[in-house]
Amino acid sequence: QVKNKAPAEVQITAEQLLREAKERELELLPPPPQQKITDVEELNDYKLRKRKTFEDNIRKNRTVISNWIKYAQWEESLKEIQRARSIYERALDVDYRNVTLWLKYAEMEMKNRQVNHARNIWDRAITTLPRVNQFWYKYTYMEEMLGNVAGSRQVFERWMEWQPEEQAWHSYINFELRYKEVDRARTIYERYILSYTLQHLPKLRPVFFLSYLFSLLVIVHPDVKNWIKYARFEEKHSYFAHARKVYERAVEFFGEEHMDEQLYVAFAKFEENQKEFERVRVIYKYALDRIPKQDAQNLFKNYTIFEKKFGDRRGIEDIIVSKRRFQYEEEVKANPHNYDAWFDYLRLVESDTDAETVREVYERAIANVPPIQEKRHWKRYIYLWINYALYEELEAKAKRTRQVYQACIELIPHKKFTFAKIWLLYAQFEIRQKNLPLARRALGTSIGKCPKNKLFKGYIELELQLREFDRCRKLYEKFLEFAPENCTSWIKFAELETILGDIDRARAIYELAIGQPRLDMPEVLWKSYIDFEIEQEEYEKTRNLYRRLLQRTQHVKVWISFAQFELSAGKEESLSRCRQIYEEANKAMRNCEEKEERVMLLESWRSFEEEFGTDTTKERIDKLMPEKIKKRRKLQAEDGSDAGWEEYYDYIFPEDTANQPNLKLLAMAKLWKKQQQESEAAETDPDKDVDESQS
C-alpha cells in the first residue's frame, strides 16, 4: 500500500527510459559469427539470403536510393553485371531525377569496360536531365579519354544547344585548343554570340548589331573579365589587330556610365606589350579623367609604374603628384592648423620632389604656430619640427639640423610646458655627431629650465651608457631633490649603488627614501628595501625592517610576507618564529574592521600548519577559524530615502568574547534545525523508524 501519493520531484518519461537503455546498451547483441563459404551450395544460399535482405529493405521504402545503390554495388562485387543493371533500371523507374544514381550506373559500366553501355547511359542521362552539367562533363571526358575526339565534339555540340553557363563554353573552347583547333574555337565563339543575338535581337540597338554578331562569350555574360579573356585569347594566338578591336568594342560597350578600371589596365598593358607607349598614355589619361578617384587606385598605381619604366622624371611628377598636391594645398588653405593634412602633404613632397621644395613646405608648416599656449594644442604641431629635423639629418645637413632643433627649443614656452622628446632627440643628434659637450649642455639646460622625470631618466641613461657613474650619482641627487616622492628613482639609485658594490651607500639611500614624508608607491619601496637586505643575507636587518613597516601599517599582506620570510630563513627556529609571527598578527588584527583581511591571515596560517604543524597546532588553528553567516542591512539612497535591504556575509570569530552569545545562539539554531529535519523524516516514513528501532 502506497501511503505517499504525492508526485515525485523528478519525473521520468518513457522516452528517457528508452534513451538511457540505448546509452547503456542493455540489449547489446553479440556480433554474428564469421561465415566461411566452402562450396557452391553454401554460396547460393548466402546470395539468396543477401538478396532477400536487400529486397526487403527496398520493399519497406522504395524511395531510399542508397538501398538500391548498395544492392547494385553488391551484385557488381559478385560480377553479376546483368543483375546490377537490372537493379539500376528498377531504381531509375522509382526516381529518374536522382543524379547520384545515374553517375553510379555509368561509373559501373565504365569500370567494367562496357563502353557502349556507358554511352547509352550518358545519352539517356543528358536527354532526361540536360541541365545537370556534371553529366555533360563526365560524358565528354570519357569520350576524350577513349580518343574519340569527334564523339566528344559531338557531345559538346549537343550541350551548346542548351546554352549553358559560361564555364561550359570555356570547356568547349579549351577542348578545341588542346587539339590546336584555333579556328574551331573562334567559330564556337561566333556561333554562341549569333544564337544569343537572334534570340535577343529586339532588345539590341541596331548600331551594335555587327559588333555583337562577331563578339564572344562577353555578350551573353557581359562582364569585364570575359572581354579581357577574349582579347587575351586573340593576343595569345598573335591576332593583335583583333585583340585591339575587342578592347575598343569593350570600351564602347560599357561607355562612360559603367567604366571599370580593370578593362583600361588590361588595355594599357596590351598596348605596352606592343610598344605603343603613346597609346598607353592616352588610355590612362582618358580613364583617369572619367573614373572617380576612389575607384581608380589600381589604375593610378599601374600608370605610375608605366611612367617610371618608360617616362621621364618630370612627367611622373607632373602627372602623378599634381592632383594630390592640389588636394593637399586646398586642405591646408582651408585650415592652416590642420596638421594631419600637413603631414600627408609633406610625405608626398618628400617622396617625389627635390630638397628645396621639401624645405619650403616644412617652413610653411612650422609657421602655423598654435594660437593657444596649451600643451594639448601643441602635441601634433611639435612633430612637424621633429620630422623636419630628421629629414635634414637624413639629408646629411648637420648644421641645418642643429638650427632646426635650436629654433624649436626657443619657440616652446618652457615656463608653461615643455616637450622632453625634443630635448632628448637633440641630445641624441649631438651624440651621433660625436659632440658630447653640446649634448650634455642641452640636457643640463633642459633640467635647469623645465625639469621633468623623463628628462632626468634620459640624461641618467645617457651617462650610464657612457659609464660616467659619478655624473649619474649627481643626476640622481638632483632628480631626488626635484621629485623626492618618486619611489622608482630611489630604487634605481639604490640598485646602481648595489651594482657598483657600495652596499652601505645603497642602504643609506633606502633609509633616506623610507624617511620621506610623501611617497607615490611606498609599498614598492619597502619591498625593494626588504629584498635588498634578503639578497645581502642580513636577516636581522630584514626583521627590523618588517617591524618598522608594521609600526606604520598593519596590513595583512605585510604580516603574511613577514611570516613567509621567517619560514624561508632556513634556520632551526624558523618554524617557531613563523608561528609566533602569525600569533602576533592575529592578536594585532582583532580590532581590525576589515574582517576579510583577518580571514586571509588565518587561512595562510592554516595552510602553514597543514604543511609544517602538528595535530595540536592544526586543531588550534581550526578553532580560530570564523563562522561565515549571512546578514541583512538597510540601504539608503543619496537623497536619504530608503533603498531597500541588501544581504551580505559577515564573520564571527570564536576568540572575540563579545561574539560568544552570537555563537551560542547560532549553535542552538543549527541544533533546532537538525531536530526539525529528523521529525519531518519520521512523519514521512514511520516504518523506517520502526525498523531502525528493531535493529
Task: Spell out the blueprint of helices and strands.
Elements: H1 14-24, H2 40-60, H3 65-77, H4 81-94, H5 99-111, H6 115-128, H7 133-145, H8 149-160, H9 166-178, H10 182-199, H11 209-213, H12 217-220, H13 224-236, H14 240-254, H15 261-273, H16 277-290, H17 297-310, H18 313-334, H19 339-352, H20 355-366, H21 375-378, H22 382-394, H23 398-411, H24 420-432, H25 436-449, H26 453-465, H27 469-482, H28 487-499, H29 503-514, H30 522-535, H31 539-552, H32 556-568, H33 574-588, H34 595-612, H35 615-624, E1 627-636, E2 642-652, H36 660-684, H37 686-694
Antiparallel strand pairs: 1-2
Helix pairs in contact: 2-3, 3-4, 5-6, 6-7, 7-8, 8-9, 9-10, 13-14, 13-15, 14-15, 15-16, 15-17, 16-17, 17-18, 18-19, 19-20, 22-23, 23-24, 24-25, 24-26, 26-27, 28-29, 28-30, 29-30, 30-31, 32-33, 32-34, 33-34, 34-35
